[in-house]
Amino acid sequence: MTADRRWGREVLSGARRVVVKIGSALLTNDGRGLDDAAIGGWVDQMAALHRRGIEVVLVSSGSIAEGMARLGWHSRPSAVHELQAAAAVGQSGLSQCYETHFARHGLRSAQVLLTHDDLSNRKRYLNARSALRTLVQLGVVPVINENDTVVTDEIRFGDNDTLGALVANLLEADALLILTDQEGLFDADPRGNPDAKLIEEGDADDPRLDAMAGGGGVLGRGGMATKLRAARLAARSGAVTAIASGRQPTVLTRLIEGESLGTLLHPDHAPLAARKRWLAGQLQVRGTLTLDAGAVSVLRSQGSSLLPVGVKWLQGSFRRGDMVVCVDESGARVAKGLINYASADAERLLGQPSQRIAEILGYMEAPELIHRDNLVVL
Ligand SMILES: Nc1ncnc2c1ncn2[C@@H]1O[C@H](COP(=O)(O)OP(=O)(O)O)[C@@H](O)[C@H]1O
Ligand SMILES: N[C@@H](CCC(=O)OP(=O)(O)O)C(=O)O
């Protein structure tokens, strides 16, 4: 993957707006509260980027670890309400820590806590976008985390890599810089494979990367699997993703200067329109449609709407307007979109030409199951 040199590191040198994500594996002293000195070092680097005129948005984990330390808890609780309480206590500490360090550079920071709902409801998504844009225009560094105290397990980002990518989409950032406890993405998890080799550069959508990226460590949540997924999401708005060690001295400045450090994952396609990116970022999917080969081909090659005639099977219980995923006959994901019919009605339309919809259902909402404006090919 390093042999293909069509990309180049210089893309980072031209970045005007970056999202920096700092993971749990780095932020805490082995799970015992925040590593204040290390955080101070990253803030120094972010301030240096800011001085160069680069807009910086930070996504930072660490609330639960800091909350546990403040509450004197030695092991991570498993009960949700305890985790939520720890997050509430720890988030103040996290915010305070960043504020103090940014203030040393004369910079203001702002705490922004988001939930999946904030980004899946289109109105709230647009609100979040304008608030964040305003903060950035004011020269403030937004410090974003998931609002762990109010989210339920069913609908959460869980890992902050995904949140970082969605923020990169939201703000059309040029780059997502993920700092973690490894030098980058290796061809196998270096924890169990001492001979694993660093992937220096690649295409975010390269399917060969899937087998390499494993799960997370004790403190982190998603591991490389969620970082790879984040790179793919970020690529949808044209952002390049760097995954690098937060322990490398001046890692952020060196990345921006184009130094060969960590892993760089490039977008392989033109950025999607904002609405399609929003669709792609939706995590909650209510049903699955299995498409025949013809439907898969027109969706992929022509960006067509999905008609009932091309759908073979359906799973799940959903309402009109819910998000469903479309797969091919081997189960591989092809597209996602908002469906025009509830599952009970959609079921009756499978394999049928659109002209028969009114006759079968007694009404016709639309000739297609998913209109192409509401469909994103994955
Ligand atoms: N192919 C891989 N290359 C590098 N790290 C990997 C790989 N697969 C799994 N990992 C693991 O991912 C971990 C980093 O992810 P995680 O623990 O979630 O950290 P963070 O809190 O920074 O998101 C590493 O400690 C590493 O053990
Ligand atoms: N939102 C959580 C962090 C989630 C998390 O650990 O994510 P990650 O840093 O991607 O492994 C917190 O602040 O504790």
UniProtKB/TrEMBL annotation:
SMART domains noted in UniProt: PUA
Catalytic activity: L-glutamate + ATP = L-glutamyl 5-phosphate + ADP
Chain positions recorded as substrate binding sites: S61, D148, N160
EC number assigned by the record: 2.7.2.11
TM region positions: none
Major enzyme class: transferase
Keywords: Amino-acid biosynthesis, ATP-binding, Cytoplasm, Kinase, Nucleotide-binding, Proline biosynthesis, Transferase
Gene3D superfamilies, alphabetized: Acetylglutamate kinase-like, PUA domain
Functional note: Catalyzes the transfer of a phosphate group to glutamate to form L-glutamate 5-phosphate.
This protein's name: Glutamate 5-kinase
Organism this protein belongs to: Salinicola rhizosphaerae
